[in-house]
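Issue: ligand-bound run for zinc ion - logging full I/O for the record.

Environment: standard queue, default settings, no custom constraints.

Inputs:
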Amino acid sequence: MIDKILIFPSTELFLGNQLLKTDKLLELCGNQKVVLVADAAIKDLYAVALAKKLRANLLTIPSGEKTKNWDTAQTLIDQLFQVGCGRDTLLIALGGGVTTDLVGFVASIYMRSLPFISIPTTLLAMVDAAIGGKTAINTPYGKNLIGTMYPPQAIFVDFDVLQTLPAKEWLNGLAEILKMGLIRDGSLWEMAQKNGESSAMILQAILGKMQVIEQDPMEQGLRRILNFGHTIGHALEAVSLYKMPHGQAVALGCLVEAHLSLQLNYLAKEDFDSILAMYKKFALTLPKTYTRSHLLQAMAHDKKRAFGQIRFVLIDQIGHAIPFDGAYCRSVSPNELESTLDWMEQWK
Ligand code: ADP
Ligand code: ZN
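Outputs:
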């Protein structure tokens, strides 16, 4: 059953249960040559059956963030040549954010671009990585530093594939949903808190991200709110040498940035306490390799930095990021930051 069909400016979004078992995707394939590229770990779960249904060539990439690099992209490109892909070949990505980012990147550069469809299979990819048109690979200098803007023709969100998702991967996606709840959607926060019906929660999180991107496509102001929790979160990932999963880092980052909002007297203690209670379900531990100086050094690369100062998105209630005259972020003094880091270091 297809529950909902939405149209982005250039992308059709299909959501539903048993979506991969319907003929919708087959219809979109038409009589094009189709190559399905899947995360190797879900080959037997979903990829083999889907490739058969679509009469597609099936290629796999190894699982994990360490795969998302030039070498894998190059190997995939070679395989596309070997199976005879031309510019009219439809490339379909099936997997989490690693797969959708990498395959999207290859689709955007192979013969100067191929038609591309994305099928995110993790909660994180459904609500975040696969929404917004970014493609990426990692480099030794950092995550996602090489990439393109290449929105897929269609995104298929099949809620049923989440049934096989390990619990820790669910939490990683939940971290981005909670972030969306904190910055602009109190009702989404409530849904997540009550372990609400997941398909409604996923749809609401996707719509939230799409609305923010539509209002600020060039990231001149409002879109910065999506970066809440990520100033600290990205730095924690770097300090952990990328061993800490993105969702865990963002969860701790959101909590610490909510604490900063409390400390600067924007957020009420009562709100902060319920935020703290919610994040107890995450493993709130700092990476073993954590040092404060390394964290501060890593934060210096934050993209919201201006005039040498690190800036933070802050909230004044659950569901509302502070506009700060349209900048949606503000700098904090070294002392203010240090006292929130003192508080964070209880999780050493
Ligand atoms: P993310 O989506 O968080 O960026 P990945 O693409 O690395 O992360 O996916 C996280 C892990 O979940 C990988 O080990 C991947 O093989 C696995 N995975 C992806 N989708 C599913 C699924 N539907 N069922 C079970 N495991 C999955
Ligand atoms: Zn994120």
